[in-house]
Amino acid sequence: LYLDYSREDGEWIPNMYGGRENLEAISLLKEFNEQVHAEFPGALTIAEESTAWGGVSRPTYSGGLGFSLKWNMGWMNDTLRYMREDPIHRRFHHNELTFSMIYAFTENFTLPLSHDEVVHGKGSLLDQMPGDLWQKYANLRLLYSYMWAHPGKKLLFMGDEFAQWNEWNCDESIQWHLLQWESHQGMQNLIRDLNRIYRSEPALYQRDFVSEGFEWIDCQSADESVLAFLRKAKDPNDNLLVCCNFTPVPRMNHRVGVPRQTWYREIFNSDSEHYSGSNVGSFPGVSAEPIDWHGRPWSIEVKLPPLGLAVFKPEQ
Fold first, then answer.
1. Is the terminal CB of the chain with fewer CB neighbours within 10 Å at N or C?
2. What is the pTM of this model?
3. Which structural domains are found in the chain, ordered by start?
4. Does residue 50 surpass a pLDDT of 90?
């Protein structure tokens, strides 16, 4: 997209307007996307673009490049940097979790945990997580659960779905043998259930690219390293409440403001024993009480799992 990419002054020639934009490359990408979408309806074209170029996933007829999706490199970098922090220090990096919502709807984003994050000495995602062995698995379950709950489509590289220990090596098979151990089976079960819930709950995909699909409940509890937000479907009865705890300290009486009085059923918990977790949670659910909290007239008191994420669905 840029004539001066990886070039010093004097090593590139400006375009006809005196700018650094590569007009021929832009024209090529637009025509490519137009042809693909015309000839193969439903096909996806996905761009990995690390600058702030506008309109990468906007249709060409409105001035964009015409890609279906764009990698959200900002989310990936900020979230992994946050997750690599020891939980005791995460309170000082809370903005790395919340900042992505400033720009989450400026493109049709996909959230990438690609091969780039598990090569060249970085280690596997599991190995990058801080803490003892239990905390490493819990942190990774939390990372995946937060990724599935966050607006944007999902990209997860092979081997990550069962918590491979080695970083990726193109000359070797991924470590399928690890599935003989319970912790790796639990991670695979987690990904399977996240995909099942993703398909069955419209709030997680219907309004991924518009701000109406997301609402903060609590984004300011930095000292506790806790987040709470709503994922909102076209039908309000399908909305979901997501609560995250990024510390190993269980929050046994944590109060969260909710939009209405009803029963909130816990439909997912990353700390479930089914995923080799410690099984701390609010199953089967909790009832809203008339207690003002987070600027809302109703609230629920939940048990937030250590290094865990729970999803609640309000009953109709």
1. C
2. 0.95
3. 71-204 (3.20.20.80), 213-314 (2.60.40.1180)
4. no
